[in-house]
Inverse folding.
């Protein structure tokens, strides 16, 4: 029988798995060094908990099944952010700032793109309990450091603000269905479609919404936005926030895209997308989502980011490691001591099990332990 995996699902073979695991450890250690504590949410939850506060896109991406014990509908997580919000709001229940991080597989009913996996290895960091710009700065700096440690430094970090869209959509009097359509058109920067959708929207809101897809680039975009968007207190506050972030992040490759609204269903403030050299799509997404924990009893201020570790690791070379050392199957006490010492030094030592039919070089061995003059020494592997 020919074993075939489902579309957009794949195994991680030894070289890739080793690369992913080394990267995971390195990045989680970096999170720990910044005070972010690791949490491990469950793979399955009741559907309401997984999709609370999320938009239709997350609901459509979530695999659903019936719990044989309770008869309730459950889901396989498609995004760990709502789970971490539940942990902060319902289980930890801290009054001050809480820094949490996570890494684990999520499952998508449909791939996000034609080439994307349906089982991303999602890694992220969340900061709860601080509503100020300083929290957004910390998260964006942390993201930049994570990409540097992964040897995929950020070539561009696009900033936007969901508040701009929300204010303008509310002024346009959009019903939820039309707002979803407006969102999709803005994301695609589809100006002809926008003109058709906004034909009956009054000025100056119509011109402002048509301007959003054209407002991308360097710091000059903020001045252009102030000139082209309505003089509204919320709009001014959003643009001021972006300006303060740009000034404080001058050491990073910051740019702006005021129509980039991914995740706007639960984001409510600054949003950002980070790109690496040669990556046509964003490698990491994040932003502020202050009310995501409301359904769990505490709508705390929150900001964070997440990324797919598989995607981040694509451009990295496979780990170059020394081959393993082959040790004979011998009960000699000195041999056991030598093997223990080598393993303590970080070497991989394999025992030559009797009856092995394959090649030891194929198994990864390039050296062997041989007894010379009553001492066990490491030499180059002879033969296969």
């Amino acid at each position: 029988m020919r074993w075939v995996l489902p579309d957009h699902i794949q195994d991680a073979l030894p070289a890739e798995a080793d690369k992913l695991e080394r990267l995971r450890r390195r990045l989680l250690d970096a999170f720990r060094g910044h005070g972010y504590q690791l949490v491990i949410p469950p793979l399955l939850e009741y559907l309401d908990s997984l999709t609370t506060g999320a938009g239709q896109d997350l609901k459509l991406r979530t695999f659903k099944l019936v719990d044989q014990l309770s008869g309730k509908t459950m889901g396989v997580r498609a995004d760990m952010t709502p789970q971490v919000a539940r942990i902060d709001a319902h289980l930890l229940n801290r009054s001050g700032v809480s820094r949490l991080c996570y890494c684990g597989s999520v499952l998508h009913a449909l791939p996000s793109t034609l080439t994307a996996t349906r089982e991303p290895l999602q890694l992220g960091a969340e900061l709860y309990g601080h509503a100020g710009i300083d929290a957004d700065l910390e998260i964006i700096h942390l993201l930049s450091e994570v990409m540097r440690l992964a040897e995929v430094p950020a070539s561009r970090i696009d900033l936007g603000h969901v508040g701009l869209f929300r204010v303008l959509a509310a002024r346009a009097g959009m019903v939820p269905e039309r707002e979803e359509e407006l969102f999709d058109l803005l994301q695609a920067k589809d100006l002809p479609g926008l003109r058709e959708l906004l034909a009956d929207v009054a000025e100056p809101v119509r011109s402002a919404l048509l301007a959003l897809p054209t407002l991308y680039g360097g710091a000059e975009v903020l001045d252009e936005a102030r000139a082209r968007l309505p003089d509204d207190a919320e709009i001014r506050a959003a643009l001021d926030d972006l300006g303060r972030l740009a000034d404080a992040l001058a050491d990073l490759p910051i740019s702006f895209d005021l129509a980039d609204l991914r995740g706007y269903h639960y984001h409510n403030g600054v949003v950002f997308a980070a790109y690496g050299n040669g990556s046509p799509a964003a490698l990491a997404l994040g932003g502020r989502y202050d009310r995501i924990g409301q359904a769990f009893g505490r709508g705390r201020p929150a900001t964070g980011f997440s990324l797919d570790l598989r995607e981040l690791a694509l451009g990295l070379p496979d780990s170059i490691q020394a081959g393993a050392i082959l040790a004979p199957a011998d009960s000699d006490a000195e041999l056991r001591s030598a093997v223990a010492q080598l393993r303590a030094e970080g070497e991989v030592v394999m025992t030559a099990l009797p009856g092995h039919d394959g090649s030891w070089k194929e198994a990864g061995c390039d050296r062997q332990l041989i007894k010379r003059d009553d001492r066990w020494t490491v030499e180059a592997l002879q033969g296969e």
Notes: The longest strand covers residues 98-105. The chain has three domains: 1-152+286-321, 154-276, 324-380. The radius of gyration is 26 Å.
